[in-house]
Amino acid sequence: MGIEFPHRHLLEIGPLSREDIEVILRTAANLKEILRRPIPKVPTLRGKVVANLFFEPSTRTRLSFERAAKVLSAEVLNFSARGSSLEKGENLLDTVRNLMAMGPDLFVIRHPASGAPHFVARHVRIPVINAGDGFHEHPTQALLDLLTVWERKGPDLRGLKVAIIGDIRHSRVAHSDILIFRKMGAEVYVSGPGTLLPPEREALGARVCLRVEEAVEGAGVVMALRVQKERHGRPLFPSWHEYARFFGLNRRVLAQAAEGALLMHPGPINWGIELAPELEDFPGQVILEQVENGVAVRMALLLLLLKAGEA
């Protein structure tokens, strides 16, 4: 019997229903068992080809998708913009058309331009997964973050307070996480320097706190974000020292959180800025669990998008 999943692509969180999200997370949770086997490999996607198209730097996301595909026995094509024909003037659509001629079954795309995966999805006949686009979204990161919270807090998130601290304005992770946690019933609070908060704050769907302590108070989940300095174009706060002083997380700030609070970060981490070094052994720190869950979630998505409807 075929796997029931009603979507052809994963481009953003919005179109996913609560039921869709639960299918992805249940599938991911079941697939985690494979990763712990002595030989972590199954033939499920043998004969399928996954093309990873990364137009900006990535470590965790790119390697996570590659690992996910190989565990499921898919072949992997890895594309990097650096050293490619893009440097010779080839445009995105021509690049995609040339890669399509090599016979991939699914594209994973990370791109600095918001909307690039949506553009590609309109021009190809295969599934597309958004691995992060500009300031827009990073849906697979949101799904792995949610899975991490589910495993620690249970599936019923109603009334759970989630605090997201840092560069909200430029973070696609924040945008996807706000959407997915609110969709699952959690209350989301955000905080950061005023210059790192979006001007249309009411459209966030989260409560904005100018003091980090207010956002963290009573939170069951606290997530720090990296300052997206490469996307600012100009300095948006006086100094790293001042950022760490007022918006960096440490044990004093986390003492305001609920008992048993989780500490999360999508990476890469700037220790001493977003997180104090003393938090490396914080009891609720689950950053490496997020990384492990990233492989499982991406396995689930590859499986759902490539096998849905097959007998």
From TrEMBL:
<dbReference type="Pfam" id="PF00185">
    <property type="entry name" value="OTCace"/>
</dbReference>
<feature type="domain" description="Aspartate/ornithine carbamoyltransferase Asp/Orn-binding">
    <location>
        <begin position="159"/>
        <end position="304"/>
    </location>
</feature>
<feature type="binding site">
    <location>
        <position position="268"/>
    </location>
    <ligand>
        <name>carbamoyl phosphate</name>
    </ligand>
</feature>
<dbReference type="GO" id="GO:0006207">
    <property type="term" value="P:'de novo' pyrimidine nucleobase biosynthetic process"/>
</dbReference>
<dbReference type="InterPro" id="IPR006132">
    <property type="entry name" value="Asp/Orn_carbamoyltranf_P-bd"/>
</dbReference>
<protein>
    <recommendedName>
        <fullName>Aspartate carbamoyltransferase</fullName>
        <ecNumber>2.1.3.2</ecNumber>
    </recommendedName>
</protein>
<comment type="subunit">
    <text>Heterododecamer (2C3:3R2) of six catalytic PyrB chains organized as two trimers (C3), and six regulatory PyrI chains organized as three dimers (R2).</text>
</comment>
<dbReference type="Pfam" id="PF02729">
    <property type="entry name" value="OTCace_N"/>
</dbReference>
<dbReference type="InterPro" id="IPR006131">
    <property type="entry name" value="Asp_carbamoyltransf_Asp/Orn-bd"/>
</dbReference>
<feature type="binding site">
    <location>
        <position position="88"/>
    </location>
    <ligand>
        <name>L-aspartate</name>
    </ligand>
</feature>
<keyword id="KW-0808">Transferase</keyword>
<dbReference type="InterPro" id="IPR036901">
    <property type="entry name" value="Asp/Orn_carbamoylTrfase_sf"/>
</dbReference>
<keyword id="KW-0665">Pyrimidine biosynthesis</keyword>
<feature type="binding site">
    <location>
        <position position="267"/>
    </location>
    <ligand>
        <name>carbamoyl phosphate</name>
    </ligand>
</feature>
<comment type="similarity">
    <text>Belongs to the aspartate/ornithine carbamoyltransferase superfamily. ATCase family.</text>
</comment>
<feature type="binding site">
    <location>
        <position position="60"/>
    </location>
    <ligand>
        <name>carbamoyl phosphate</name>
    </ligand>
</feature>
<dbReference type="GO" id="GO:0004070">
    <property type="term" value="F:aspartate carbamoyltransferase activity"/>
</dbReference>
<feature type="binding site">
    <location>
        <position position="141"/>
    </location>
    <ligand>
        <name>carbamoyl phosphate</name>
    </ligand>
</feature>
<dbReference type="InterPro" id="IPR002082">
    <property type="entry name" value="Asp_carbamoyltransf"/>
</dbReference>
<comment type="function">
    <text>Catalyzes the condensation of carbamoyl phosphate and aspartate to form carbamoyl aspartate and inorganic phosphate, the committed step in the de novo pyrimidine nucleotide biosynthesis pathway.</text>
</comment>
<feature type="binding site">
    <location>
        <position position="172"/>
    </location>
    <ligand>
        <name>L-aspartate</name>
    </ligand>
</feature>
<feature type="binding site">
    <location>
        <position position="61"/>
    </location>
    <ligand>
        <name>carbamoyl phosphate</name>
    </ligand>
</feature>
<dbReference type="GO" id="GO:0006520">
    <property type="term" value="P:amino acid metabolic process"/>
</dbReference>
<dbReference type="GO" id="GO:0016597">
    <property type="term" value="F:amino acid binding"/>
</dbReference>
<feature type="binding site">
    <location>
        <position position="138"/>
    </location>
    <ligand>
        <name>carbamoyl phosphate</name>
    </ligand>
</feature>
<dbReference type="InterPro" id="IPR006130">
    <property type="entry name" value="Asp/Orn_carbamoylTrfase"/>
</dbReference>
<feature type="domain" description="Aspartate/ornithine carbamoyltransferase carbamoyl-P binding">
    <location>
        <begin position="8"/>
        <end position="151"/>
    </location>
</feature>
<feature type="binding site">
    <location>
        <position position="110"/>
    </location>
    <ligand>
        <name>carbamoyl phosphate</name>
    </ligand>
</feature>
<comment type="pathway">
    <text>Pyrimidine metabolism; UMP biosynthesis via de novo pathway; (S)-dihydroorotate from bicarbonate: step 2/3.</text>
</comment>
<dbReference type="GO" id="GO:0005829">
    <property type="term" value="C:cytosol"/>
</dbReference>
<feature type="binding site">
    <location>
        <position position="226"/>
    </location>
    <ligand>
        <name>L-aspartate</name>
    </ligand>
</feature>
<dbReference type="GO" id="GO:0044205">
    <property type="term" value="P:'de novo' UMP biosynthetic process"/>
</dbReference>
